[in-house]
Amino acid sequence: MLYGSLRERSYSKLLTLEAAQILEAMGAEVKVFDPKDLPQPDGAPDSHPKVHELRTLATWSEGMVWCSPERHGAMTGILKSQIDWIPLSVGAVRPTQGKTLAVMEVCGGSQSFNAVNQMRILGRWMRMITIPNQSSVAKAFLEFDEAGRMKPSAYYDRVVDVMEELIKFTLLTRDVKPYLVDRYSERSESAQELSKRVNQTSI
């Protein structure tokens, strides 16, 4: 699970932690990545401890949840930096391809969907199965109590719906992921490379 703010009282973090509790209650094993101290993309080597941690979690997971505040009508750079550190492939391992994704956002004012729409585009680019449902919490500062727990509301019910749908899509697709992500273009490219290797005119 990724969230997109470093504020001491971060509502995207609080929403992520609330969703994590829901997922755990449904039987999922959940890990939340803390973006603090993650360097900017290309600003540090891949061996940086936070980069290694993020990529390890991305590879480990069967599904992901991305949650961002909406800032200036867009997702935050903090969340985008986390996504930018996750490559499409690391050797033969593809950390995101074929995995499920749920997207959520928190808004300081009226409800908006700019951030979740952007995250959907990124999810598609990362070759993920982004579930149909999503969560956008308006005036998020009113939706959490002093302890950081989400108050009962239609917004909370939607978060439960989204997490439940994420579980369902993950269970439905986990055993057929190799089939879903198998592509003709990649198969034919591999065949061409093999042909070049075994039909060399000289060595």
Walk me through this protein's architecture.
With 203 residues, the protein is an alpha/beta fold. The model has no long low-confidence stretch (mean pLDDT 92). The chain starts with a strand and ends in a 5-residue tail after the last helix. Strand 3, helix 4 and strand 4 (129-130) form a beta-alpha-beta unit. The chain has one domain (2-198): 3-Layer(aba) Sandwich (Rossmann fold). It is built from seven helices and five strands. Strands 1, 2, 3, 4 and 5 form a five-stranded parallel sheet that branches.
Oligomer: single chain
Radius of gyration: 19 Å
Distance between the termini: 50 Å
State the helical fraction. 40-55%
Low-confidence stretches: none
Strand content: 5-15%
Given the C-alpha coordinates, what overall shape results?
A: globular
CATH architecture: 3-Layer(aba) Sandwich
Supply the number of helical segments. 7
Number of self-contained structural domains:
1
